[in-house]
């Protein structure tokens, strides 16, 4: 009874009559106050005796990439230069993502004309136009995982020498130009060659004056010297696969080992094929007699005289060497008495070679997020509908790549171009607009190639007729600006009317005739009279 009363006293009743009891946290020996993990997530006990399963180190991505970034970069450089399988993903993605070059969507013709002039000379190394700079940055971004673009300002005399309408150019820097470790820099928050302030914002970059691996100038003293550059002049395009990463990760990182293994396998099979093609003939001689063996055992070579002698020092004939010279066409080889030839050839690869190569190719394609059929141009056994589904999936991936590349690389360059053009007086915003109205434009790339062009166009017409899409939507899918298409169509229509190739559209009003064709009132009246006379004669017929 006493125990029961104590339990009843320990429980309290709220005014609502609901009982409350104290919540107790189980105490685990050795880990005070921390409950044990759920049994279905307690992998440490399940895998206690499994040494073959890799376990993560728990290291932060910023330190893991910083420590291994240089090694991964060297491996990727070697693979992409010497191995076609490693260089193929960057070639394919550059073709689909960049193509002829992504272009900005801007409705001001004067600004676009200025941009096209500047884009032809945008490369700081004077090697290419904007399309070339885009491809160079993309290949560095895809292969290494990051690319650095240096916005280099140009003085008026340099602009005149380069015929540069806007005073800056873009220089693409390799990832090795930004050091991953700077042990001599103290008193700053430096991670991966980048300086961060107290708010976690990157303010400066440390950049080598010359490539640290450049051996072209042996007397250079600046190979390991770095300069501190403001982050406002550096564009860092990187693949941040995990939050917190400050350096990029190569798209080939997950496939480097497989690429190396496949290269070894292909080299071994190539050697086997080479030996099979160069068939070797072995000469099989009969066994020597006892007298011949004894005579041959008593022959020694004297290096001082360069002659063969016996055990008594007498000069003897050198031992005979039997070999067969490859016969020419139409001849017969002579063999020693009792000899015969034996042909040898290595075994073939077997039926497992092609499936192995395909499986490694699939691994590379999955690691780079590229369909196998697009990566290796192997569409054997693929129906057109399945191919279309793969193309649509890859098109979404290309759109994602374009969005990321535009946000990190193209849009900042455009904004710098517009601000510099306004500051130098090369362009000014039209009336009733401000500078911000012309920043952060959209970028368009080439459309994905169509498998059946007629079917694609018919489906677009159906979408527009049913109200599922607009003409502008279809034009954007083709990688073009709807406003530009409308202006071009109108200008061509006006030119054809002025040249007398076609009559003015029937829906054009008198005001439209005056605006588009610059007709006077008398010309408009004469045209309307001629139109009414023509219509009346057609009705009588």
Could you characterize the architecture of this molecule?
The structure is a single chain. This protein has 541 residues and is α+β, with helices and mostly antiparallel strands. It is built from 17 helices and 15 strands. The protein has a 4-stranded antiparallel beta sheet, with no helix packed on it. A 3-stranded antiparallel beta sheet has the order 5-4-10. A hairpin with a 5-residue loop joins β7 (194-196) and β8 (202-208). α3 packs across α4 (84-97), α4 packs across α6 and α8 runs antiparallel to α10 (353-368). The longest helix has 41 residues, at 384-424. It starts with a helix and ends with a helix.
Defining traits:
three-stranded antiparallel beta sheet, alpha+beta, 17 helices, single chain, 15 strands
The largest sheet is: 4 strands, antiparallel
Strand content: 5-15%
Rg on CA atoms, Å:
39 Å
Low-confidence stretches: 1-23
Amino- and carboxy-terminal Cα gap: 120 Å
Mean pLDDT score, rounded?
Answer: 81
How many alpha or pi helices?
17
Strand order of the largest sheet: 6-7-8-9
The helicity comes to: 40-55%
Number of strands: 15
What is the overall shape?
extended
Structural class: alpha+beta
Helix-strand blueprint:
Elements: H1 2-10, E1 12-13, E2 19-20, H2 43-46, H3 61-82, H4 84-97, E3 103-104, H5 109-119, H6 130-144, E4 146-153, H7 156-162, E5 168-173, E6 189-191, E7 194-196, E8 202-208, E9 226-230, E10 234-238, H8 256-277, E11 280-284, H9 290-297, E12 300-302, E13 307-309, E14 340-344, H10 353-368, H11 372-376, H12 384-424, E15 443-444, H13 453-466, H14 471-477, H15 482-498, H16 510-517, H17 521-540
Antiparallel strand pairs: 1-2, 3-15, 4-5, 4-10, 6-7, 7-8, 8-9, 11-14, 12-13
Helix pairs in contact: 3-4, 4-6, 8-10
